[in-house]
Design a protein that fits this description.
Layout (H helix, E strand, L loop, with lengths): L2 H6 L3 E3 L8 H16 L7 E4 L1 H10 L6 H16 L2 E2 L5 E2 L1 E7 L9 E5 L5 H8 L4 H20 L3 H15 L9 H19 L7 H15 L3 H10 L7 E7 L10 E8 L6 E9 L3 H5 L6 E2 L3 H4 L1 H18 L3 E8 L2 E9 L4 H13 L5 H6 L3 H7 L3 E2 L9 E2 L1 E4 L2 E7 L2 H9 L4 E5 L7 H6 L2 E4 L7 H9 L2 E4 L5 E3 L4 E4 L2 E4 L3 E5 L4 E4 L4 E2 L2 H7 L10 H16 L3 E5 L3 H9 L5 E5 L9 H9 L3 H25 L4 E5 L12 H13 L5 H13 L11 H6 L3 H18 L5 E6 L5 H19 L7 E6 L2 H5 L1 H5 L4 E4 L1 H9 L6 H4 L1 H7 L15 H15 L4 E4 L7 H10 L3 E4 L4 H13 L8
Parallel strand pairs: 3-4, 16-17, 17-18, 18-19, 26-27, 26-33, 27-28, 28-29, 29-30, 30-31, 31-32, 32-33
Antiparallel strand pairs: 1-2, 2-7, 5-6, 5-7, 8-9, 8-11, 9-10, 11-12, 13-25, 14-24, 15-19, 16-23, 20-21, 21-22, 23-24
Bound molecules: phosphoenolpyruvate (PEP) and magnesium ion (MG).
Length: 902
């Protein structure tokens, strides 16, 4: 950019200038405030500083040129509109400074309220509030507290301490009992704390307060908990946050004021109706932090009917406008309703499906859109088991079912302990009075979260729902004592390490471990629950959406399955074939002995005998699988791992031989085995004698497998079934490798198949970068390609599959080199490019070449969209992921360009 452009670049938007489509620039909150402003709803005036300004600030450590002037101009216009000046001693305008990123990150970044208050304007505020000094001093102490903590990193506990002290001095436990003098005293105490920690007085200049608060919000994008949350939620690290500067309205002006949070439908179950919490005489952060107990929103009808009716009216309008569940934050200032925020609300997985179905029924969206409103991660969650409560399990407490699921685990009381125990492989339940953003680490580590305070909109509830983690909040019979590491409930004491079970659907809490039962959604997929007869809104909604996904999708979905049982399950889950049948397990168990004979064979005859003994065993395996998959393709991969993996480990064998020799036993066989293990030892087995290389080096090995496959197919077909085998050669890097294997295989197939009508395809995995780059040549010899993205990632990045995730990926994630492990979600730019090149060049050489993927990525939602875009024919994944892949393949097919559905 030239300096002129920099100066002219627009960094600040009035609410009237934005709209909901500008989330990239204005963040979710800013874009939606603008949308509501333009709908004519009662939104306090304000402006939004763009995410671009934040990005520029974070890149250079200073505000971009032109920003200060634009803020000044917008502030002036805000002051004109309100008829008040920021921090004016007589009649002050106060503003809130609120973060708001493109994707909601509840409580992860900063907000400062009441900016503009100082020693003089506090008096003006009291006058403005009809002489309400208590309110003015309470607002001022809140500013110093939030500003100190957020902008200047003053430890929050010190303020809490001083507040507790003031309450103690007054002999109360409620903030509301503190009078104006108490609060004035508290302001004095807070200022001292501020001075002690920052070495300066609390800033009295309103504009300086504003600038520092804006800067702190920018910086909070990189706060530890925000970074962690983004990683968890897969939100890109470089988006930055917008900053909203909004004229303050006050919910703490007395009993006719208050603040609340509402949902237009139940975000937990999706049921129609209004849900929310209201807190009279309070400011917003009191509700979200779950610090004081709220009343149900319905009570507002009694407290302030006019505002209640207006709110309901607005909620209905917002739902119609956004065509979705909305969540809302509002404040009532002396009987006048103000909308502080709305957004398409986060919801549980079950609610997502149920609401999408309802909206179709209501004619607000069509089925394509419904498909877009749900995702595979949610479906996967719905497939988790639930508690099986047909035994004598009595709950000991009941709270709010804040985020569904069934979780049992050891009780812990701190985030740090949760992380520690989880790292040791323990399932833990994090128990707190209420959670705050600093608990994020522990919440991620825990199986479930239990709090004794707060409702459906408390921090714990919102964050847990976002993560898909089981949460019961507000179980107020539980008395939590964190320092003593115990809680008491119904006369019993539960210590750290004791096991509890929590049900995030019903809100019930049980002592001990409760057994679990499969989810209804799994029963539906398995065919044991008829969606038309189920009286469950969720199963009906899942059925409807899955039916549409299946009709819409272009990608077929297959499963990775190695046994008849797995194949059967995969088929029930909707698999249209097997995309990868790994044959290595067919060399394990009681067959090890035959494998040892094969490896130790000194003559061709000995080797042939060992292979002949393996042949019928393998043939039976294939018969079972082909029967289960009757009529559907089954891709069988020839043996892939290095053969020494089937022998005992070197160290163990060496010790056994030495001990046996010591005892004078006959160890000729063991010695031969030890010698073979030594001979076959490889420094880098993943890059050694495996895959197609085995087939080229060990005479008869692949031939035996090919024969077993062909014979099994013929048998199944002769028995009246239909077997469609596809033989797949692993680890091919050059067309000559494939040609050699294929020539031998074709001879055997021709001989075995005869006139049975069985057709056997021969193709290859593309899992070595060289194969991807010479795909045009390889396609000449392959009837299909299946991308082995596990090895392709390993060899594309040079990352050992077995080592790196534990060893150093944390650092790569921290540095943002990638946002998620490339073994989990396909690296589109690198490994994905190899896939794309191979797909294009393969199809150019052999039009119509069948293309699939059978690496783990086949069941990863993001990756499924990529494979759709590359034009593959199918993805193959573990049986349990098949429904997820079906759904995501459907979503990919109806996806509109540039949409996001987080
Ligand atoms: C792959 O490499 O992606 C693959 C499917 O094979 P395996 O995981 O067995 O190496
Ligand atoms: Mg592989």
């Amino acid at each position: 950019m030239t300096s002129q452009e920099t100066v002219d670049h627009k960094y600040v938007y009035d609410f009237a200038e934005g709209n909901r489509d500008l989330k990239d620039l204005l963040g979710g909150k800013g874009a939606n405030l603008a949308e509501m402003t333009n709908l004519g709803l009662p939104v306090p005036p304000g402006f939004t500083i763009t995410t671009e300004a934040c990005q520029a600030y974070l890149a250079t450590g200073r505000e971009p040129d032109g920003l200060a002037g634009q803020i000044e101009a917008h502030l002036e216009s805000l002051e004109r509109g309100m008829g008040r000046r920021l921090g004016d001693p007589h009649d002050p305008l106060l503003v809130s400074v609120r973060s708001g990123a493109k994707f909601s990150m509840p409580g992860m970044m900063e907000t400062v309220l009441n900016v503009g208050l100082n020693d003089r304007s506090v008096v003006g505020l009291a006058a403005q509030a009809g002489g309400n000094e208590r309110f003015a001093w309470d607002s001022y102490r809140r500013l110093i507290q939030m500003f100190g903590k957020t902008v200047c990193e003053v430890p929050g506990e010190e303020f809490e301490h001083a507040l507790d002290e003031a309450k103690r001095a007054r002999g109360t436990t409620s903030d509301l009992d503190l009078d104006a003098d108490d609060l004035r005293g508290l302001v004095g105490a807070y200022k001292k704390i501020f001075l002690k920690h920052t070495g300066r007085d609390f800033p009295q200049e309103p504009r300086e307060q504003l600038d520092l608060a804006i800067r702190a919000v920018f910086e909070s994008w990189n706060a530890e908990r925000a970074v962690l949350y983004r990683r968890q939620e897969r939100i890109p690290a470089d988006l930055g946050t917008a900053v909203n500067v909004v004229a303050m309205v006050f919910g703490n002006l007395g009993p006719d004021s208050g603040t609340g949070v509402a949902f237009t439908r139940d975000p937990a179950s999706g049921a129609q109706g209004i849900y929310g919490d209201y807190l009279a005489n309070a400011q917003g952060e009191d509700v979200v932090a779950g610090i004081r107990n709220t009343v149900p929103l319905q009570d507002l009808e009694r407290l302030d009917k006019r505002s209640y009716d207006e709110l309901l009216d607005i909620m209905a309008r917002l739902e119609g406008h956004y065509r979705d569940l909305c969540d809302i934050e509002f404040t009532i200032e002396r009987g006048k309703l103000w909308m502080l925020q709305t957004r398409v609300g986060k919801r549980t997985a079950a609610a997502a499906f149920v609401i999408a179905g309802q909206l179709v029924d209501e004619g607000l969206i069509d089925l394509d859109e419904a498909l877009h409103r749900v995702n595979g991660a949610q479906l996967a969650q719905l497939m988790f088991p639930r508690f099986q409560l047909d035994h004598d399990f009595e709950p000991v407490a009941r709270g709010v079912g804040a985020s569904p699921g069934a979780a049992s685990g050891k009780v812990v009381f701190t985030s740090a302990r949760a992380v520690e125990l989880a790292a040791e492989g323990e399932a833990v339940i994090l128990v707190r009075r209420e959670t705050n953003p600093d608990d994020l680490n522990g919440m991620i580590a825990a199986r479930g979260i239990l709090t004794s305070r707060g409702g459906k909109t408390s921090h714990a509830a919102v964050v847990a729902r976002g993560m898909g983690k089981t949460c019961v909040s507000g179980a107020d019979e539980i008395d939590v004592n964190v320092p003593a590491k115990r809680f008491t409930v119904a006369g019993q004491t539960v210590h750290e390490g004791d096991v509890v079970s929590i049900d995030g659907t019903t809100g019930k809490v049980y002592l001990g471990e409760v057994p679990v039962t499969p989810s209804e959604v799994v029963r539906y997929f398995e065919g044991t629950l008829d969606p038309h007869e189920a009286d469950d809104a969720l199963v009906k909604a899942v059925h409807r959406i899955m039916t549409h996904a299946d009709a819409a999708r272009r990608l077929a979905v297959r499963a990775n399955a190695d046994t008849g049982a797995d194949a059967a399950r995969a088929r029930r889950f909707g698999a249209q074939g097997i995309g990868l049948c790994r044959t290595e397990h067919m060399f394990l168990g009681d067959r090890r002995e035959l494998v040892e004979r094969l490896i130790l064979a000194r003559t061709d005859t000995e080797r042939a005998d060992a292979l002949a003994a393996l042949l019928p065993l393998q043939r039976d395996d294939f018969v079972e699988i082909f029967r289960e998959m009757d009529g559907l393709p089954v891709t069988v991969r020839l043996i892939d791992p290095p053969l020494h993996e089937f022998l005992p480990p070197l160290e163990q064998l060496a010790v056994d031989v030495a001990v046996a020799q010591e005892r004078g036993e006959d160890v000729a066989k063991e010695e031969a085995l030890l010698a073979a293990v030594r001979r076959m030892h490889e420094e880098n087995p993943m890059l050694g004698l495996r895959g197609v290389r085995l087939g080229l080096v060990i005479p008869g090995l692949f031939a035996m497998q090919v024969r077993a496959i062909a014979e099994a197919a013929v048998r199944v077909t002769r028995d009246g079934g239909s077997a469609c085998p596809e033989i797949m050669v692993p680890l091919v890097g050059a067309v000559q490798e494939l040609e050699t294997v294929r020539a031998e295989a074709e001879k055997i197939i021709a001989e075995v198949v005869g006139d049975s009508g069985v057709e056997v395809l021969i193709g290859t995995m593309i899992e070595v970068p060289r194969a991807a780059l010479t795909a045009g040549q390889i396609a000449e010899a392959a009837q299909f390609f299946s991308f082995g993205t596990n090895d392709l990632t390993q060899m594309g990045w040079g990352f050992s599959r077995d080592d790196v995730e534990g060893a150093f990926f944390w650092r790569y994630l921290e540095l943002g080199i990638f946002g998620i492990s490339p073994f989990e979600s396909i690296d589109r730019d690198g490994v994905g490019r190899l896939v794309r090149i191979a797909a294009e060049e393969g199809r150019a050489a052999r039009p119509g070449l069948k293309l699939g993927v059978c690496g783990e990525h086949g069941g990863d939602p993001e990756s499924v969209h990529f494979f759709h875009s590359v034009g593959l024919d199918y993805v193959s994944c573990s049986p349990f992921r098949v429904p997820v892949a079906r759904l995501e393949a459907g979503r990919a097919a109806v996806e509109t360009v540039g949409s996001d559905s987080r």
